[in-house]
Every structure is written in C-alpha cells, then in structure tokens.
Amino acid sequence: MENQIDTQMVRRKGRRLVLFPIPFQGHINPMLQLADILHSKGFSITIVHTSFNSPNPSNYPNFTFHSVTDGLSESEASMADIVALVKLLNTRCVAPFRDCLIKLLADVSEEPISCLISDALFYFSQAVADSLKLPRIVLRTGGVSSFVVFAAFPLLMEKGYLPIQESQLEEPVADFAPLKVKDLPVINTEDPEVFYELVAGLVNETKASSGLIWNSFDDLEQPALATIRRHFSIPFFPIGPFHKYFLPSSSSSLLTPDESSISWLNKQAPRSVIYASFGSLAALSEAEFLEIAWGLANCKQPFLWVVRPGLVRGSEWLESLPSEFLETLNGRGHIIKWAPQQEVLAHPAVGAFWTHNGWNSTVESICEGVPMICMPCFSDQTVNAKYVTDVWKVGLQLESGLKREEIERTIRRLMGEEEGREIRERISELKEKANLCLQQGGTSCQSLDTLVGHISKLESFVFKSE
C-alpha cells in the first residue's frame, strides 16, 4: 500500500498548474481555496494575477506568484461600473498574460505545466491557451443554478424576457421556475450590450474549455447540474464547498478583518445575533443605509453589522448615522469595517445572516446552518436569493424594498416564529449534506478524485529555445 501511494505522488509530482483569478474579492477567495485543495493533491501551484487587487504572496509560501500588468488607470480601477471594468480587463490583459504564459512554458528549470485554470469571467484566456496548445479548465465561482440562466440568455432574449422591462418584473419566467423576471441575473451598466457580450463570452469560452470546476455540491444543485450537462459536452467537477476542506487557511482578504467581532460575539446569547454584511462590491444610497440602521436598531436583537468603507455612496464610513442612533443601541450593536466571515458564521451566537447572497456567502451560510435574510443587489445574487427562499427554503427575502418596518417584521419572522423554526430545521439538514459530501465516498470527494485524474491526463507543449 505504501509503495502504491509513493508511486502516485511521484506520478503527480512535476505537474504544475497555473491559476488565474479575476481580481475581485468574491473570485480571488475561491480560486486560492482551490489552489490549496489541488496543492494538497500533489500539484505545484503558480498564481498569475493582475496588479489591480493583487493577493499577498507572503500568505501563500507554497505557491509561486507572477504579476501581469493590466494597464488600468486609477480612475478605471475605481469605477463603479463592474461590467465595463471586466470588459477592460479582458482586453488589456491579453498581451501581458500571453507573454507571461510563454515565459512560464519555456522555463525548463520548473516542472512542466499541465493546464491553466482561470476564472470563467476571464474568457479571453481560452483563446490565449488555445494558441499555446495549453489546456484550460474553468473555475466558475458562482452557483450552477445561475449559470443555467446565463447560458439561456439567447433564449430569454428571443422570448422577450431580456432586456428586462419594468412592466414585466413580476412575471414568471417560463421553464425557469421559481424565477420571475425581476430575479434574472443582470447588472446595471452604461452599455447593456457590453453586459450581454460579456455573458456570451463567459458561456461560449467555457464550452470551449477542457472542463468546469464548481464551488458547489451535488445535493445542493443536482437539478441544475443535470440541466447544464445536457447543453455542455465538457466534464464537470462539483467539488465544493471549497472552504470546508481545511481549517481556515491563509487569508486572501483584500480588507483587514476586525477580530473584535469574535470577542463581542462571545458575550452574546446562543443564536441571538443578526450578522449583516453585503459583500465587497455592493453600494447603498444614504436613505437605504438609514433604513437598514433603524431596522436593526428597532428589532431589539443584538447585531453585528459590517459597514465596508465606501458601502454608502458619497460617504467614507458612518457619517450619515445620526448621533442618537448609537446611543439608542446601548451596546446591543457592534459595527465594524470587515469581518472574518467564516469564523463569524460558525459562532454559536449567530442566529441569522442578512446577506447580499453572493455565492460564497450563500454557501458559507448553508455550511454553518445559519438561516438567511436575502437582499440581493445584482447579477447572480438575485438567482441565489430566489433559490434560498423558494427552492431550498432556508431564508426569507426582503420583498417590499428596504423599509425599516419590513426589516423588523422579517427579522421577527426568522428569529421568533414557527416559520423560522422550520427554516432552521431545513438549513440544518443542508449543513449535514454539505459535511457528508466531503467525506470519503461523498460526491464532492469523488468529484475531486476525478478532477485530479482528468488533470493528470492532460498534455501541454513546452517551448524550448533552439
């Protein structure tokens, strides 16, 4: 048995993987978690990253890091239009990324490269990989259910659901129950055509790849996996939840988490705290911010609230809160700039998570058995929220807009009433399924073994100078 293990490791050793995350917090985290998982399976890891939002290499001593210039000016890097920024990155990074890959492939002092693993949103990387005869595997950092909808955009446009019309918001989307038109994953952008181009690039270049890795698991999204498999001929690897493979690993956070949140939670009663955090990209108006503040204050539950600098448009941090707000709390609320989220959700004091329903946050909440209050902002978040409330039934959505009375009422329903008890039971069952899938013989564990085998069979070409 010992010899067998040694032989396997020798065969895998010398297999190097190049990983290329798109530079947004919700995409960097899962890519670096995937790097940890594959490194534990005997692969060498090289991370290629943009200079914009670059990760800290000192947190990952086992990986090699290479930076590529993205050519973004300060104003471009800070623009609020995410669609325009992604488009720009897919244009500006082509030549620097290709040059970087050529250098890596030609470096005979390093182990040979088996494949490129890049974010689905870096769709330009497929053509670059093809030109260098390097296989590309895609990491999709969102859920399978939302990807099914993105893949159906041409059909949804043909049927008149897209572009979204105000008059149709409450209409059900045929063949995509339980989604309504308002749940379709779109992003407000100056040029909607660019958004549709981006989605087409994401879907078509994923189809052209050598495989697709999901941070999801079979028991959570089995129907969506079955649907997408009918339309894609490439192999799929649902190996999530990534963050549960190891104890909290190196931090890939672009913001510094405030550890005071844990000592504050230690003083709270079990399942009493509302944890509110809306991700790294969402932006609120001052009026919305104040409704959230008073909704939390009036619900009479203790709360831990992440107010990221820049969350409120036109404000640095908490300036728009009236002075009497903090006085009325009497220590019942704790406001911070960023939280160690996985630790917070795992804390016994946390009873609900008020979230924007980014995929990482949604999966982390499910894995800790914490019911959700859903406030999606854009893109796949609207689909994730609908699945949380109507398919998995492990949360409630703020349907009637951000009004303090509605916030209060929703918190009460989730924390105190029979409906909340049933939601807690359902999310506890999903938590158990998330744990089982990673155990020996579990679906994600098997899928990871299949992925390792798949990568080991891929062949790339090495460039040698004459």
Automatic annotation (TrEMBL):
Name its species. Morella rubra
Q: Which Gene3D superfamilies match?
A: Glycogen Phosphorylase B
Q: Keyword Zinc, does the record have it?
A: no
* rRNA processing found in the keyword field: no
Q: Which GO terms describe its molecular function?
A: quercetin 3-O-glucosyltransferase activity; quercetin 7-O-glucosyltransferase activity
**The protein, known as:** UDP-glycosyltransferase 76F1
Keywords noted in UniProt? Transferase
What family is it from?
Answer: Belongs to the UDP-glycosyltransferase family.
UniProt cross-references to InterPro entries, sorted A to Z = UDP_glucos_trans
* Pfam families according to UniProt: UDPGT (PF00201)
